[in-house]
Amino acid sequence: MKNRSWRERSVGGSMRRWRPWSSFVPRRRQGGRINERRRVGIRDLVAAPSEVSHQPEKRWRVIGGFFLILLAVLYFRLYMLQVPGHAHSVAMVESNSMRVSTIPASRGEILDRNGRVMVGNISTTEVRLSRAEAAQNPEIIGALSSLCNISVASIKSALADLRYDPYQPAPVLLSTPPNLVEYLTLHSAEFPGVTLLNVSKRVYPLGGGVAPHVLGYVGPINGTELASRPNQGYQMDSAIGKSGVERFYEQFLRGHDGQRTLRVSNTGRILGEALTRHAVVGDSLVLNIDAGLQNALDGFLSSGINRVRHSVDPRSGKIPPAPNGAAIVMDVTNGHVLALSSYPSYDLNQFVGGLSVSQFHGLLQTGAFNNFAIQGLYTPGSTFKMITSTAQLKSGILAAGSYVNDTGVFAVPGCQQGYHGCLFHDDETSGAGMINLPLALTKSSDYYFYNLGYLFWSQTKRYGLTPIQDVATKFGLDQYSQIDLPNETSGRVDSPIVRQRLHNEAPKAFPNAAWYTGDNLQMAFGQGSTVVTPIAMLDAYATLANGGTRYALEVVNSVVSPTGRVIQSYGPKVLDTISLPPSVRNPIVQGLTGVVASPEGTAYWPFHTYAHFDLNAFPVAGKTGTASNAPGLEPNAWFVGFGPTNSPRYAILCVIGQGGYGASASAPVVAQAFDYLVHNPLPPVAKSINPSLAPLVPAKK
Fold first, then answer.
1. How is residue 379 annotated by DSSP?
2. Digit-coded pLDDT (tens) for 532-545
3. What would the pLDDT profile of 296-343 be if each residue is shown by its tens digit?
4. Residue 498's Cα: distance from chain center in Å?
5. CA distances from 131 to 57, 103, 416, 425 (A)
6. In a 3-state reduction of DSSP, which class is residue 5?
7. Closest CA to 533 of 562, 500, 493, 496
8. Is 294:322 a contact under the CB 8 Å cutoff?
């Protein structure tokens, strides 16, 4: 049977032949015809049970092997979870039962040069409520409302504040009376989710109206500020410096927040406190500012503007609106800012409890948030004559002792008579006669400087296109003073290049792209498109006063740790130097001294009215400025001076926008400031200062 090519099978008692598979393949007949294929059924292809060996053990081996592999994978996974991944598993479990909340740190103090606290902290107790706990126990809201005498709507509003996550308690009562603190402490079990947190808030011992633009204020962090400070520890409910040194020195003042770790049940209920990391108090700032001088300067500027608003400008017959102004005092020997005032102003105490939207917009519309001392741009007028005088003497285009006949009207040589722009008139003086440089400064002769503007423009091949502008740049009028306050603006000195650039940027606002002789005359005494900041003009005069060193302006003297250790000290920083030999400096100082000391000087009257000290013992040099604005507007009023002239230390400036004449509007403010300094000389910055940060002073109830 094994050698046969076919087999027989018993089906229904009959024998049936099986043929090999190959026999079903069709074959060709001779002659090319194909044989017909025989029909095949399923039983012709399937073997009979008796012909197949029975092997159940193979099936069990396959099934068993499959389950053994699954068991091995399971054991391997358990091993990985319990041995190498043990720490991670524990951390995951604990993270499901632990929640972290932030403990805000107290900010560092801000002290004046004598160690007097200008910005401190006061300790208050806040009642805070967890949103998660309030959701679990809604009756807590009603109970807390009755106990604290605050509305349910107010509590719900606090809980809806998205700055606080479900486990970050939201403050519902900011200043809690001691009796309420005691009651909540004794009955804490009755108020689940309610916590008492000691926090510090800004306090201003000298008054919130003293130096607000220097100190700045603190407010809730916004989305932009938070996004720009990743991984720096800020939270959605953090406070941050918004302006002034509070903002500029935020990294030192803010301190480091603490953390409180809470145990939470699987339903979100707070079970207790597991761990607390205490907050670290921020560093303190010691300013170069003298608080007494600052307070006095704020008052001088405010009263000066109020006086202007009740006086008639004799030239225009109008009452100047005087919408804004600034006053600054600095030390010419090192760049220290001793006082800085801006008007209009605001009270920093308004920000402690939070401003309403209407209050904020009201301050915004008046310009109270603008620091006009470093952001205001004003046409400089005659204060710019110091720059032109320096260019004159350094270039040698006209000697200091050369006399010019001031007739009151300067006619541009070669200009067609009757043509607009041929004649330029004096403003503050008219027809001063024969004058040299010192007299031109003392009397503020426009004619003299018209003549200088013409001389420079008519000899460009020898002196270049911008000899006056180049000196202005060296003095920093179109530069940043690099004062350590945010958002300083830089000025602009008019020139052919600047004129073309302004026209390209704004053709409608600056339609004239060309530069003519008349433009050079206007620029020579601070008119045209020239605008400068008060801080830059003061720094320029301080540079002249100290002999040619331009310092960066510095408000902060040092950074001090809570223990009193100086961790950062800021020394004088030189920005540039300008050569001012006696042949250049002395004639200019002589003329500026005459402005105050000579009866012919433009500031003689205000200093002899408002300065109650001996000007011979403490001589002051200075310059008035009455700078034209757009037609119909009152001019900007300037005065800038320094003293004592024999050994300069102080430089003081006041500018009042649309304030009228500089002699009557701004010079009195500067005279009063000098009077204060003569009678209250400033001591050096205190070397050993111990901030009173810990413990915090309790709030008075």
1. -
2. 999 999 999 999 99
3. 999 999 999 999 999 998 888 899 999 999 999 999 999 999 999 999
4. 28
5. 65, 17, 83, 74
6. coil
7. 493
8. no
